[in-house]
């Protein structure tokens, strides 16, 4: 019986509604995120907003504050769902891995200065992006050369296009297809924090006018102060994250590109890892189209359709998403390498025997 793609998916994702919604393996963290948003809003609506309604009785402003809070919270939760339950840009695993090339292994037969050719794939290769060569890596798990700006997420075990990071608060990778909703989510959360903080402070001001002192106003509505402190702390997180991603969007970078290696080698030479990481940092002109065009690309461009139809049926022979070398083939190759090495050793041994015999004849 044919199965659907999400039932045989090799990644660590979690699916609901028969593969129509896809989450990361840490999707349970969404519960914490929802509580961090919903609980303060409920406290605000049932206490602070109700006090503001009493202070502005007969005025539409009090009802407007309550309505704005509810509608904007629903909007933030919708953005959270779009970020968490959407395919972030997963690259399908290769059903037909690229053909291995014959490469010389310098570590083999090093004592006699001979190199043994072994079939293997180069770990990296260069592709041209906007006229500039960019190095891409081969993913052993997905058996493909990753597209530029693509990286393999160790949490979800998938290669993700334009991979930014894996966010545990939304339980999903942030990539090409959900980056816009992620940025709108954190920026809207920042605005919501500022709004609740300001309205709570306004409530304290009204109570201060009624009771004469700030201390009495705080005793009358301690939850207003609690909300102000909570929003102030939370604002440092989402507000700072929003500013950081504004910089990344303006320069057309992703967090994955902007990473740097804190530990340097003492001889001031870059390792292969450092060279790959620094490549995107040293050449921002590869993707940078100017600040205005960079923002247009993120917010005005059409989101590409998913490469995976998780709800679709797959044939029996399509389930081997990671068709790698099986154990028998691997052992066979090992045996072949051993046989080649034995033959080389025999050949070398025969040459040494002939040389020693010739020296003995000359001495005689």
Automatic annotation (TrEMBL):
UniProt subcellular location: Endomembrane system
GO BP terms, alphabetized: protein targeting to membrane
Family recorded in the similarity comment: Belongs to the DHHC palmitoyltransferase family.
Entry's free-text remark on domains: The DHHC domain is required for palmitoyltransferase activity.
Protein name, UniProt field: S-acyltransferase
InterPro entries tied to this protein: Palmitoyltrfase_DHHC (IPR001594), PFA4/ZDH16/20/ERF2-like (IPR039859)
Region (Disordered): 336-364
Enzymatic reactions: L-cysteinyl-[protein] + hexadecanoyl-CoA = S-hexadecanoyl-L-cysteinyl-[protein] + CoA
Annotated TM spans: 30-49, 61-83, 182-204, 224-249
Topology within the bilayer: Multi-pass membrane protein
Family annotation (PANTHER family): S-ACYLTRANSFERASE, ZINC FINGER DHHC DOMAIN CONTAINING PROTEIN
UniProt cross-references to Pfam families, sorted A to Z: DHHC
Record field: compositional bias (Basic and acidic residues): 336-349
Keywords: Acyltransferase, Membrane, Transferase, Transmembrane, Transmembrane helix
Domain of life: Eukaryota
PROSITE patterns xref list: DHHC
Species per Swiss-Prot/TrEMBL record: Gossypium hirsutum
Gene Ontology cellular component terms for the protein in this record: endoplasmic reticulum; Golgi apparatus
UniProt-recorded Gene Ontology molecular function terms: protein-cysteine S-palmitoyltransferase activity
EC nos: 2.3.1.225
Domain Palmitoyltransferase DHHC: 137-256
């Amino acid at each position: 019986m044919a199965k659907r793609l999400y039932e045989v998916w090799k990644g660590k994702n979690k699916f609901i509604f028969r593969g129509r919604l896809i989450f990361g393996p840490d999707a349970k963290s969404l519960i914490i995120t929802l509580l961090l948003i919903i609980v303060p809003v409920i406290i605000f609506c049932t206490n602070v907003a109700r006090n503001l309604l009493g202070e502005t009785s007969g005025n539409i402003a009090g009802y407007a504050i309550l309505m704005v809070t509810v509608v904007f919270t629903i909007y933030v939760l919708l953005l959270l769902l779009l970020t968490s339950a959407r395919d972030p840009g997963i690259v399908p695993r290769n059903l037909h891995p690229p053909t291995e090339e014959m490469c010389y292994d310098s570590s083999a037969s090093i004592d006699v200065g001979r190199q043994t050719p072994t079939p293997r794939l180069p770990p990296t290769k260069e592709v041209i992006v906007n006229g500039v060569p960019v190095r891409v890596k081969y993913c052993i798990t997905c058996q493909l050369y990753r597209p530029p700006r693509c990286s393999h997420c160790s949490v979800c075990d998938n290669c993700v296009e334009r991979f930014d990071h894996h966010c545990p608060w939304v339980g999903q990778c942030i990539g090409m297809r959900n980056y816009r909703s992620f940025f709108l989510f954190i920026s809207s959360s920042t605005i919501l924090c500022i709004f609740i903080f300001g309205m709570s402070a306004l409530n304290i001001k009204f109570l201060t006018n009624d009771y004469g002192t700030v201390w009495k106003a705080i005793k009358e509505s301690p939850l207003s102060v609690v909300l102000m402190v909570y929003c102030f702390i939370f604002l440092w997180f989402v507000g700072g994250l929003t500013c950081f991603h504004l910089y990344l969007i303006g320069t057309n970078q992703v967090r994955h590109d902007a990473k740097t290696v804190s530990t340097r080698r003492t001889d001031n030479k870059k390792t292969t890892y450092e060279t790959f990481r620094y490549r995107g940092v040293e050449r921002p002109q590869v993707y940078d189209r100017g600040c205005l065009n960079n923002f247009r690309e993120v917010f005005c461009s059409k989101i590409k359709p998913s490469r995976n139809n998780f709800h679709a049926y797959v044939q029996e022979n399509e389930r081997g998403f990671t068709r790698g070398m099986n154990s028998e083939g691997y052992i066979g190759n090992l045996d072949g390498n051993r046989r080649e090495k034995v033959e080389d050793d025999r050949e070398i041994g025969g040459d040494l025997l002939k040389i020693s015999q010739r020296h003995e004849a000359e001495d005689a």
